[in-house]
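Hi all, long-time lurker, first post. I run a small reading group and we've been trying to get comfortable going from sequence to structure in the token notation. Rather than ask abstract questions, I figured I'd post a concrete chain and ask someone more experienced to write out its structure so we can walk through it together at our next meeting. Sequence below, copied exactly:
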Amino acid sequence: MARLALYQNVNFTPYNPNESRRLYDKLCEKYKLWLKQGFFDFYTGRPITISQLFSPDNLVEVDHILPVSKSFDDSISNKVLSSSRYNSTIKGTKLPCELPNYLVETAEGKPIIDRIYEIEEKVKYLEEKVIYWKGRSSKAADPDSKNRAIKQRHLWQMEFDEWNQRLTNITAKEITPSFRNNQLNDTRMISKYAYHYLKSVFGRVVVQRGQTTAVFRKIFGFQEAYEKKDRSRHTHHAIDALTLSLIPYGPKRERMMELWYQIQEAHRFMDYDAERRLKDKLDREVRLCGLGRYSPNEVVRYVEDTTLVRNDATNNTLTKNIKRYRVRGKVVPLRDENGNIIYEKNAKGIVRVKAKHVSQGNSIRGAIHDQSFYGKIEKWKDDGSHEKEELFVIRRKIDFKSGNVGSGFKSWDDLEKQMVDKKLFKKFKKQYPEGTSFKDACAEGFYTYIVDNGVRRKVKVRHVRCLAITAQPLKKHTFQPQHSNKEQYYYVSPGEAYGVFEYVSKDGKRLYESDNLFTLSKKMKSGVLTETPCPKRITDKKGKEYVHTRTILKDATILIYPSSEHAEDQYQLDAKTISRRLYRINTIEKDRKRLKLTRHNLVKSWTETNTIHDSDFDNLPDGMRMPIIKLQFLLLGTDFEIIDGNIVPLKND
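-- Answer (accepted) --
Happy to help. Here is the structure in token form:
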């Protein structure tokens, strides 16, 4: 599809994500309708070739069956594929029944009624399929068959609803007010329940459809007309809330939407004078909606700069496991003196049978260790000391990777550095001429020779043994070797990091210790682990005592500040500065005490910075990967709370 996008627009820039996404969605919609219509133009009945479909001259375009400025229906069921010439010169804003070739063949095309008969047959076929799978679901003999039948019924039902609505639109003689109201009103069940609940609390409650909100985001200028909604920031929810508060109700809402869709139609038909007049009318309506003297860009920038997103996450890593006693999958009930079953309410208020016995125990929730097993080998040291060293190795597939993500290798040097067998690496290098890139070599493959029953043959090498930093023994092998006194183990890499524990001495010096889930599981088995996964006091090598002050966990929120400031100064900051310094901990790297941080209002970050200085606090990056010892920070829930857009200090013992 990207190649088709490039074919259609020679000026297409892959580095512009908004333009790229818009063009991609447009091509996908065209292609989908082309398949649905059987490769024919709906209005003329003439075939559409693949070259016409993706022509740079835009020979074929998507048209609304019922003009969107009159119907407010922008769904897929109100769209067909037609030639641009027919749409601009004949169709325009007419209904299908008003077209000259609706009943008879003309010079413009074949009768449209013939395609309507085909759609009617398709709708009947889809309805039969829905009835068939509905019957299959009610007669299913086992749960799997029932679930498959229900899934098929829903899939056929969605297809039936789309084609049935398309048939209704094509055969419509007029656009009734009730049809327009259906496009504006949200009829989902959750909206009905939410409306009545909110009505008991607030005086005025208005329900808007998501499509209506999307249109008014563009009308108010919070989003470009042909731009995809930006969901990379959590603040898009606040912008939606602002949009909802500004949307007028009643006739004014319909008038503004009608003007908006008329502007789009005038632009498509290249009637620029009408487009300019309609924009002036819409601008007058927008000025009366409460934006005041502020421009849309200023409003969006203010929301993004001052909205504080609180990322609350419950850490259930060490939550105790509670199980109700069962026999053959059923809970054994507790009975009273008369033998009657006793019932209880759970935490959610649901009535259930009270169990006769409830067992509790310690548990760890999370990845205790990685999936791969490591090997432990002995190797002569390279320093010529004639001593052996023990190394951990793991088999890795020989693949090329362009970045830091993935399990392959970036270059020849990267492969040589990580491979255990350097002689095998030299054989790989000799197979290709000097200057051959590692990427090209991976595409061709690597080979070696083995002797099998006295016959020397060539075999492809797909995996090599590579050095690993460290591994921990998981369990012993079931069968131990007889010829050696050394016990054989399965070795694994420790899993997720639980957190980082901060300790502070009397003179204010900080010390950080980290623990992973693998170590915690060992402590739990030995009975060392208590409710607090770290000691309250520790002593360093010099005998200095440190006291535990804070525990930093994954998904916690921190406020960073430069070394030239003090913690007390942060409580006087304005909302804009707080928003710039507030970060969420995405990852705690095991064994390294490094934190990967993402700005609080971003879904994820694409940039990583390893070092920041006091001068960088005026322009902090969206993402950072920093050693915790180099950060000055306050911890949400321990040092401060966010109340009404301000941070309030908490008293610590």
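A couple of things your group might point at:
The first strand starts at residue 60 and ends at 64.
Confidence is low (pLDDT under 50) at residues 1-15.
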